[in-house]
């Protein structure tokens, strides 16, 4: 069984791709208000809210457990993608590395958010990070609902 893995999933977005990407790119501090049952706080530790290389600390609940993660953010405006590379946090109890990339594309029906998780487990006993993938997908659905609500 491989220790290095990748998971991918898509979420259909009804909101305009540019508005959706803008929240991920420079208004990520709104996520605790948009998805308050999942994300309890996010704060800048280095940089700012919208510059590549900035470091943010997240407090959230996944599978009924409160966790924290500190990540470094890389923003690709041309491809409308944001990558969150974990540098500290609770998931390092199970994973040697963890990176989540969210890419927004325009479709005929609206937009699509593609989530890619790249990770390395500490041992073969560690499960794939399904709960973290589901967590990210659910937050993206919350963001979409927030943007399109009247």
TrEMBL record:
**For this chain's UniProt record, which GO biological process terms are given?**
defense response
Under InterPro entries, the record lists: Bet_v_I/MLP (IPR000916), MLP-like (IPR052006), START-like_dom_sf (IPR023393)
The record's annotation in Pfam families points to: Bet_v_1
Stored Gene3D superfamilies: 3.30.530.20
Ranges for domain Bet v I/Major latex protein come to 2-150
Listed CDD domains:
Bet_v1-like (cd07816)
- Similarity annotation: Belongs to the MLP family.
Q: What is this protein called?
A: Bet v I/Major latex protein domain-containing protein
């Amino acid at each position: 069984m491989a220790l290095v893995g990748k998971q991918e999933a898509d979420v259909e977005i009804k909101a305009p791709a540019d508005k959706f990407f803008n929240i991920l790119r420079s208004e990520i501090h709104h996520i605790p208000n948009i998805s308050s049952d999942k994300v309890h706080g996010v704060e800048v530790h280095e940089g700012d809210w919208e510059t590549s290389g900035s470091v943010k600390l997240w407090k959230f609940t996944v599978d009924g457990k409160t966790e924290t993660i500190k990540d470094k953010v890389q923003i690709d405006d041309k491809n409308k993608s944001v990558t969150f590379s974990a540098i500290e946090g609770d998931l390092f109890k199970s994973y040697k590395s963890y990176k989540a990339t969210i890419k927004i594309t325009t479709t005929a029906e609206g937009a699509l958010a593609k989530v890619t998780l790249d990770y390395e487990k500490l041992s073969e006993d560690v499960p794939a990070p399904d709960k973290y993938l589901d967590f990210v997908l659910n937050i993206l659905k919350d963001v979409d609902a927030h943007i399109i609500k009247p």
